[in-house]
Amino acid sequence: MAYAESTRVPVERTRLEIERILDKYEASHYGVAFDRERNRARVQFQVADRRIRFELALPPSEHSQQVRSAWRCLLMCIKAKLESVERGIETFDEAFLAHMVMPDGRRFGEIAAPQLADMRAGNAGRG
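The structure assignment produced for this chain is given below.
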């Protein structure tokens, strides 16, 4: 069973919950943006000198239940990572490394994932 697959919480309320969590953990410069062409949402915030960006692939708008569920999952993810850092389970960098925005605008995970795939395929070090 998918997380929050039967949630009735409106997306707007979930977005407000994300903002409250970011306030609680003293994040700054946060906001939500939508890319309608790619059907994605983006939540970005900053903590100290680190810029973090989550990208959420959205189901087609006619599947409103799946859209609500996707937003609830994103909320849970962000909240769990921040709480994990707060409790000392992992450092901020460990929790958010894949989502850190690099100087070229890409997230670290976008840079590292292809390299990991090459390594698993036995192509490490081949140029």
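Interim note for the steering committee: The two ends are 43 Å apart (CA to CA). The chain has a mean pLDDT of 90.
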